[in-house]
Specification:
Structural class: alpha+beta
Largest sheet: 5 strands, antiparallel
Domain GAE: 664-779
Shape: elongated
InterPro entries: Adaptor_Complx_Large_Subunit, AP1_complex_gsu, ARM-like, ARM-type_fold, Clathrin/coatomer_adapt-like_N, Clathrin_a/b/g-adaptin_app_Ig, Clathrin_app_Ig-like_sf, GAE_dom
Subcellular location: Cytoplasmic vesicle membrane; Endomembrane system; Golgi apparatus
Strand order of the largest sheet: 6-7-8-11-10
Strand content: 5-15%
Number of helices: 31
Protein name: AP-1 complex subunit gamma
Pfam family, one: Adaptin_N
C-alpha cells in the first residue's frame, strides 16, 4: 500500500477546492483511505492519519471513527505518538462516551512516567476531559505532582486539580496540604495556577474561604513585589509586570475580603498603591485598574478608597475605547446606590455619554442618568434627558419616557413643572409612551386642582399642533371633556389665556372622531369628551347630532357609547347633569384580601381601592377568630402590646421633638419583638378620607447578621380593607444599623376596633425563618 500523503499536502489540496462539494469529495476520499489504513493496523502511519483526521474534525467533518486509534497512540512508547494521541483524545472524546474510561490506566502510568513532558501531556488531558470517575481514580497522582519541586509539572498539576475539584468537590480537602507552599514559589506560572486553584476552592467552600483568609498578607506581599519590581523581560507586558497574575490576585483578594473587616483592612493599602501607580495609557493597565475597582467595591474598604475607585471609573468614561466606557458605566450603575454622592461628581461626564454613537453606551448612560436624579438636580437632569428624548433612536424612547415620568413624579419641585415636563414628553415622544401612562397622567391632572385651567389650555394648544400622538390626544380629550368650561371662560392665571369658543372646541373633538390618525380608543375618548361638554356648553343640539350619528358606527365600542349617550338625552335627561359632573379626586388604594398588582412603567403599584363605596358586611359574632385566615391557622400567639405612656404636663402637651411621640397625636406601638426582630407601628390619618388609617411599620434587627429576603404580610377582618405598599428594602441590617419601612393603609368605614394578623418571613444566616402573630391592642386613636 502506498504511503499516505502528509498533513501539509492534505491542507494544501483542500485549500485548492473551489466549491464546498469539491472539498467534501476530497475529504471523503481521504477518510476512506484513512479507514483502510486503520483496518490494516498500519502502525507506521497511524500518527500521520490521526493528525489528518483531527484537521478534518476542525473543519467540521465527522471523525469519531478515529477514537480508538487515539487510545492506541496513547499506549505507544514514542513521545510523538503520545502527543498526537492525547491531542486527539482531548478533541474527539468527552465524558459522555464510555471509550474515555479505557484511557484511565494509560494516564495513570504516564502520570508516573520518568519524562516530565509525558507527565505534562497526561495532566493536560485529565484536566481537559476527565470525567468524575477518572478524577476520583487519579486524584492521588495529581496531588503527588502538586507537591513536586518541578515547576513545569506543578503549574499543570494545579490546573488539573481545579478540574478535579469542579468534577468531584468532596476531593477538595485532599489538595489542602499541597496548597501550603504554593504561594512561596518564585515561578510566575506556578503562582498564577496556584491562585486559580485557591480561588476555585474559596468559591466552592465557606470553610476553605475562612481557612485561606490567613494568606491575605502573603498575597498582598506578592502583589506589592509585582508593582514595585523593575523591568523583567520575561514577564513584562506593555511596561507592566505580569498583569495576568496581578488580575488573578486581585480577584482572589476580592473573594477573601468580602464581608471580613480584618482581611479588608490588610489589603486597603496595597489596593490604593495599585490604583495610584498603575499606568493608564495602555489597555493592560486599564484591565488591572478595573479589577482593582471591583475589589475595592466588594470588600469593606475605607470611604476614601471607594471615592478613588469611582474616580478611576470617571476617568474611564473619558477614554476613547468604547469597551472601557461601557465597562465604566456598568460598574457605576452597580455602585450608584451605595456611593451616590461620589458618582454624582461625574454627572456631567455621564450625561455626555448620552451623545455617544454607540447604542450600548447610550443605553447604559441613560439608565445611570435616571439613577442619579434627585431633588437637587431634577431640573438640570430632566433638561438633558428631555433633549436626549428628542434626538434618540425609537428603541430608547419608551424607556426614556417612562423614566422621565417616574423621576418627575418622585422629585417634581412643583405641580406646574411636573405638568410641563409631562406635556413635553407627550408632544415629543407621545407615540412611544406605555399604555398605562395615560390613566396615570389623568390621575395626576385630576389631583392638581389649581392647575386644571392651565393644563387644559396647554393640552388644547398641543392638540391644534399635532394629533398624531395618540396618548397626547387621549389625555387632551379627557381634560377638555372635564374642564372645557375653564378653557372657554379663559380663567388661566399661570399664563396668558387664549380666546376659544365652544364651537372651536367641538370642531377639534369632531375632527378627532373622523381623523384617520385616531385609534379606536382615542375616538372613544373624544366621543365621551363631547358628551361631557353637553353639561358645560350651551351647544347641546349640536352635541346631540354628533352623538346620534355614531349610533350606527361600524366600531362596536363607539356605537355602544353613542347609543347609551342617546338614551341619556331621551329617557334620562334629568339625570344627565349628575352623571356627567366632574370626576372627583382619584386616590390609589387597594381592595381587601390579596393585593392586586398593576405594572406601571416598570414598577409595581397596588391597584385602586374604591373608598367611596365600602362593602357593608355585618360583624361576625365570634370576636376571636374573625380575622381572614390568609396567613395560616388559628394557633397564633396574640401579642398584647404595651402602649408608651407620657406624664401629663400642665402647660398644654408640647411636642417633645427629640422623643418618640407621633406627630399625628397617635402614640406608636411595638407590634412584634422576637428573635432579634422588632416591628414598630406608627400612625397617621389620611387627610382626604378620615376612615383611612395610615400605618408605617419600622422593622429593625438587633442580631449580628443581616436578615435577608424579609417579607411582611398582614390580614384584617372582612369589615376592613387593607393595602400593603412596597417596602423600602428586603434586607433588615444587623445591629440596628438601619430599618425597613413599609406603609399599610386600612379602610375602617364602621369605626370598629382594629385587629390584625401578621406573617413574617426572612432568612437569617442562611436559614429560613417564618412566624405568625396577632396584634389586637391598637391605640383607640388609630381606629376611632
Amino acid at each position: 500500500m502506498p504511503a499516505p500523503i502528509r498533513l501539509r499536502e492534505l491542507i494544501r489540496t483542500i485549500r485548492t477546492a473551489r466549491t464546498q462539494a469539491e472539498e467534501r469529495e476530497m475529504i471523503q476520499k481521504e477518510c476512506a483511505a484513512i479507514r483502510s489504513s486503520f483496518r490494516e493496523e498500519d502502525n507506521t502511519y497511524r500518527c500521520r492519519n490521526v493528525a489528518k483526521l483531527l484537521y478534518m474534525h476542525m473543519l467540521g467533518y465527522p471523525a469519531h471513527f478515529g477514537q480508538l486509534e487515539c487510545l492506541k497512540l496513547i499506549a505507544s512508547q514514542k513521545f510523538t505518538d503520545k502527543r498526537i494521541g492525547y491531542l486527539g483524545a482531548m478533541l474527539l472524546l468527552d465524558e459522555r462516551q464510555d471509550v474515555h474510561l479505557l484511557m484511565t490506566n494509560c494516564i495513570k502510568n504516564d502520570l508516573n512516567h520518568s519524562t516530565q513532558y509525558v507527565q505534562g501531556l497526561a495532566l493536560c488531558t485529565l484536566g481537559c476531559m476527565g470525567s468524575s470517575e477518572m478524577c476520583r481514580d487519579l486524584a492521588g497522582e495529581v496531588e503527588k505532582l502538586l507537591k513536586t519541586s518541578n515547576s513545569y509539572l506543578r503549574k499543570k498539576a494545579a490546573l488539573c486539580a481545579v478540574h478535579v475539584i469542579r468534577k468531584v468537590p468532596e476531593l477538595m480537602e485532599m489538595f489542602l496540604p499541597a496548597t501550603k507552599n504554593l504561594l512561596s514559589e518564585k515561578n510566575h506560572g506556578v503562582l498564577h495556577t496556584s491562585v486559580v486553584l485557591l480561588t476555585e476552592m474559596c468559591e466552592r467552600s465557606p470553610d476553605m474561604l475562612t481557612h485561606f483568609r490567613k494568606l491575605v498578607p502573603q498575597l498582598v506581599r506578592i502583589l506589592k513585589n509585582l508593582i514595585m519590581s523593575g523591568y523583567s523581560p520575561e514577564h513584562d507586558v506593555s511596561g507592566i509586570s505580569d498583569p495576568f497574575l496581578q488580575v488573578r490576585i486581585l480577584r482572589l483578594l476580592r473573594i477573601l475580603g468580602k464581608s471580613d473587616d480584618d482581611s479588608s483592612e490588610a489589603m486597603n493599602d496595597i489596593l490604593a498603591q495599585v490604583a495610584t501607580n498603575t499606568e493608564t495609557s495602555k489597555n493592560v493597565g486599564n484591565a488591572i485598574l478595573y479589577e482593582t475597582v471591583l475589589t475595592i467595591m466588594d470588600i469593606k474598604s475605607e470611604s476614601g478608597l471607594r471615592v478613588l475607585a469611582i474616580n478611576i471609573l470617571g476617568r474611564f468614561l473619558l477614554n476613547n475605547d468604547k469597551n472601557i466606557r461601557y465597562v465604566a458605566l456598568t460598574s457605576l450603575l452597580k455602585t450608584v446606590q451605595t456611593d451616590h454622592n461620589a458618582v454624582q461628581r461625574h454627572r456631567s461626564t455621564i450625561v455626555d455619554c448620552l451623545k455617544d454613537l454607540d447604542v450600548s453606551i447610550k443605553r447604559r448612560a441613560m439608565e445611570l442618568s435616571f439613577a442619579l436624579v434627585n431633588g437637587n438636580n431634577i431640573r438640570g437632569m430632566m433638561k438633558e434627558l428631555l433633549y436626549f428624548l428628542d434626538s434618540c433612536d425609537p428603541d430608547f424612547k419608551a424607556d426614556c419616557a417612562s423614566g422621565v415620568f417616574l423621576a418627575a413624579e418622585k422629585y417634581a419641585p412643583s405641580k406646574r413643572w411636573h405638568i410641563d415636563t409631562i406635556m413635553r414628553v407627550l408632544t415629543t415622544a407621545g407615540s412611544y409612551v406605555r399604555d398605562d401612562s395615560v390613566p396615570n397622567l389623568i390621575q395626576l391632572i385630576t389631583n392638581s386642582v389649581e392647575m386644571h385651567a392651565y393644563t387644559v389650555q396647554r393640552l388644547y394648544k398641543a392638540l391644534l399642533d399635532d394629533i398624531s400622538q395618540q396618548p397626547l390626544v387621549q389625555v387632551a380629550s379627557w381634560c377638555i371633556g372635564e374642564y372645557g368650561d375653564l378653557l372657554v371662560s379663559g380663567q388661566c392665571e399661570e399664563e396668558e389665556p387664549i380666546q376659544v369658543t365652544e364651537d372651536e372646541v367641538l370642531d377639534v373633538l369632531e375632527g378627532l372622531l373622523v381623523s384617520n390618525l385616531s385609534a379606536p380608543v382615542t375616538r372613544g375618548y373624544s366621543l365621551t369628551a363631547i358628551m361631557k361638554l353637553s353639561t358645560r356648553f350651551s351647544s347641546v343640539n349640536r352635541i346631540k347630532k354628533v352623538v346620534s350619528i355614531y349610533g350606527s358606527s361600524i366600531d362596536v365600542e363607539l356605537q355602544q357609547r353613542a347609543v347609551e349617550y342617546n338614551a341619556l338625552f331621551k329617557k334620562y335627561d334629568h339625570m344627565r347633569p349628575a352623571l356627567l359632573e366632574r370626576m372627583p379626586i382619584m386616590e390609589k388604594t387597594a381592595t381587601n384580601g390579596p393585593t392586586e398588582i398593576v405594572q406601571t412603567n416598570g414598577e409595581t403599584e397596588s391597584s385602586a381601592l374604591d373608598s367611596k363605596h365600602p362593602p357593608s358586611i355585618t360583624q361576625p359574632t365570634n370576636q376571636a377568630n374573625d380575622l381572614l385566615d390568609l396567613l395560616g391557622g388559628n394557633d397564633v400567639p396574640v401579642i398584647q402590646t404595651a402602649l408608651p405612656t407620657k406624664p401629663a404636663s400642665a402647660g398644654g402637651e408640647l411636642l417633645d421633638l427629640l422623643g418618640d411621640l407621633s406627630l399625628s397625636g397617635i402614640p406608636p406601638m411595638t407590634a412584634y419583638n422576637k428573635n432579634g426582630l422588632k416591628i414598630e407601628f406608627t400612625f397617621e390619618r389620611s387627610n382626604p378620607n378620615p376612615n383611612i388609617s395610615v400605618i408605617t411599620i419600622h422593622a429593625s434587627n438587633s442580631t449580628e447578621a443581616d436578615m435577608t429576603d424579609f417579607v411582611f404580610q398582614a390580614a384584617v377582618p372582612k369589615t376592613f380593607q387593607l393595602q400593603l405598599l412596597s417596602p423600602s428594602s428586603n434586607i433588615v441590617p444587623a445591629l440596628n444599623q438601619g430599618s425597613v419601612t413599609q406603609v399599610i393603609r386600612v379602610l375602617n368605614p364602621q369605626k370598629q376596633q382594629l385587629r390584625m394578623r401578621i406573617k413574617l418571613t426572612y432568612t437569617l444566616k442562611g436559614a429560613p425563618v417564618q412566624d405568625l402573630a396577632e396584634v389586637n391592642n391598637f391605640p383607640p386613636q388609630s381606629w376611632q
